[in-house]
């Protein structure tokens, strides 16, 4: 790396290709130019054939120099493409598509970068999914809601698309936990989350917001749609044999709300749904209020 570091101090040329070419030029053309000068000094200026020969040699050198510069640029394309691919991945998340079939040093560089970036991308995607997923139920978590769900709501509402929200709470869940233990409570939560997930549609998002509390984001859903989804979820849990037990019965209460205008913030929508959830609780539980 010492020579490479020294070359960085040059004010010209600035490019990597130019600096490699400068080294090649110094190594091959300086001796040739020195030879030309020596011949001229030794033989004087009165020999036209000598000048003709030297002129042809110099012209050939210039042509070869141009071709060499072009060829070096082509040979260094693996480095250029690898750098560009890394910049695209870091700046825009675009995965590289570098060739992996070449066996020389440049080919191994491209193959190594391709493999490393793809593995890194897969690891990042896996970690990202873990970071936005509730480990117990498989539903999305609050981080997903804050970083992805709410911004998506704001974009859709700004575009005028209808959007609805459900808040879901298990009835008397504390009694199940206290009487039968947290292991049983966890099993109930997992079964309830699975029932909610299977009752929603593609494009809906189920989020665990608290211990036994969930919310369901329903893009492009009007008031009738939110009522249909709420009743489907409630019926699914009420009729699920894997959730019920001779020792306890699991039911849920649901509150729903639909954003009425683009100025309705997510906080306002959530408060409306939560208020309807408490109405459902006060109405005897195991029901849904979405009006």
TrEMBL record:
The keyword Disulfide bond does not apply. CDD domains: GGDEF. GO terms for cellular component: plasma membrane. The keyword Transmembrane helix applies. It comes from the Bacteria. The chain crosses the membrane at residues 20-44, 50-72. This is diguanylate cyclase.
């Amino acid at each position: 790396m010492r020579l490479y570091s020294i070359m960085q101090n040059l004010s010209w040329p600035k490019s990597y290709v130019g600096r490699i070419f400068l080294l090649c030029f110094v190594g091959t053309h300086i001796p040739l130019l020195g030879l030309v000068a020596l011949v001229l000094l030794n033989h004087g200026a009165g020999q036209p054939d000598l000048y003709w020969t030297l002129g042809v040699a110099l012209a050939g050198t210039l042509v070869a120099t141009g071709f060499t510069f072009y060829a070096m640029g082509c040979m260094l394309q693996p480095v250029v493409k690898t750098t560009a691919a890394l910049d695209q991945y870091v700046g825009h998340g675009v995965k590289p598509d570098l060739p992996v079939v070449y066996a020389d040093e440049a080919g191994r560089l491209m193959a190594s970068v391709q493999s490393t970036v793809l593995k890194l991308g897969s690891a990042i995607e896996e970690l990202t999914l873990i970071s936005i997923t509730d480990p117990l139920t498989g539903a999305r978590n609050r981080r997903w809601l804050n970083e992805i769900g709410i911004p998506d709501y704001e974009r859709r509402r700004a575009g005028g698309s209808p959007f609805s929200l459900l808040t879901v709470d298990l009835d008397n869940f504390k009694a199940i936990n206290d009487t039968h233990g947290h292991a049983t409570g966890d099993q109930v939560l997992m079964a309830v989350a699975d029932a909610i997930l299977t009752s929603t549609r593609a494009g809906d998002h189920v989020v665990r917001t608290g211990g036994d509390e969930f919310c369901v984001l329903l893009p492009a859903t009007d008031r009738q749609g939110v009522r249909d989804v709420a009743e489907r979820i409630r019926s699914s849990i009420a009729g699920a044999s894997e959730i019920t037990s001779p020792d306890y019965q699991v039911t849920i209460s649901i509150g729903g709300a639909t954003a009425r205008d683009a100025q309705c913030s997510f906080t306002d929508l959530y408060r409306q749904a939560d208020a309807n959830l408490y109405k459902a609780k006060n109405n005897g539980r195991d029901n849904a209020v979405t009006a």
